[in-house]
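New here. Your pick:
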Amino acid sequence: MNTENSIRQAICCLFLIAYIARSHAAVVNIKTKGAKGDGITDDGQAIVSAWNEACGREAPSSVLIPPGTYMVFPQIDLIGPCKAPIKIKATGAVVKAPPELEKFTTTYWIAIRNVSKLTMIGGTYDGQGEQTWKQNLCPDGGPGPCPLPVNLQFTNVTNSLLKHITSTDSKFFHMRLSLCDNTRLDHITILSPVNSVNTDGIQIGRLSGVNITNSVMRTNDDCISIGQGCRNIRIKNIMCGPGDGIGIGSLGRRANEEPVQGIWIKNVTMTGTEHGFRIKTWPTSFPGSVSDLHYEDIIMNNVSFPIFFDQQFCPLNNCQNGTASNVNISNVSFRNIRGTSATKVALKFDCSADVPCKNIKVADINLTYEGPEGGPATSECSNIKPKVVGQVVPPACPGGPD
């Protein structure tokens, strides 16, 4: 009996050891998959191979991109679902795209899709977009192969963390997130020169419960662009500029757009941006709504249009004149906003005649004009009567609604 018990115990131990070995968290180094990291060799398939191995394991696993310079020609897809939480660690690594636009066959460079509990830490992702900007393709939906490739595209990536990531010189938008509920972006750095074209920093759409914090964005276009279907978004501790500020929209151009609701933006510094906070809706638009927006503790440094509701947004100049937007803007508050405007019109509320802006509150605003025309900053208002609390400079819509 003792011998039989010993055999059973030994077999159980072997099974236990095998299970632990199979389920133990693994680190898959892309260099074990053939990556060179020499800045010349295409290492894209090595990254995909490492991802596939880590994604297929039954315990939390990591893809390691060690320090070095890695070329990825021309685009890669990292696809789930994974069997367990997965991490991509690229601290000290630089990943570069090919500069030639003709090498791309998709609208993205690196895409991650259908993953829950992703942690993505570190790394610089360089889109090498200068050659594309010089061709000036696809400005505002104009001529050229549109849309151009996004640096990092996340689709249905949920319950995840993206941290200490740098995106530089994207050919188009730097980061695009869609259907990425309950995801946090922290310490994100976006860098593109002023002469880049349509290099939005972070574009989000059709998602809920996303936080963007402690980040720096210097680009040509919106630092953060909030599209249809965004709910419960918190943006805090952001430095933006140059660029085009933090924008909502454009909205109303297409049928059945989802509402934008519940946006909290706090402790943001805008420096040298074209706009500070802008809401863009199309005239002659389909119905839609934007509600429960809250802006607080903001510094504006030499911002051309610090606060702008633009319900006549028509960048291609092909809209029917005299028509009103059908997108309803309501329940918006601005509190404790300080700084300087580069134009005399610091507050501009161009609201719809058909659905006027409702329940708009401005409190403790002090925006002064510093420019060649001299004199104080002013406000311009159409179809709005905001509630004013405390001291508001310039006076918000002193004449009431049009």
Remarks:
- Residues 14-23 have pLDDT under 50 and may be disordered.
- Residues 2-23 form the longest helix (22 residues).
- The first strand starts at residue 27 and ends at 29.
- The CA atoms of residues 79 and 113 lie 5 Å apart.
